[in-house]
Amino acid sequence: MDSSDSLMLDAKQAILEEQHRRFQALQKEGKWAEAMQQFQTTMHCASDLLSDSLNLLERVLETHRQSPPENPPNNSLS
Question: What is the pTM assigned to this prediction?
Answer without folding.
Answer: 0.76
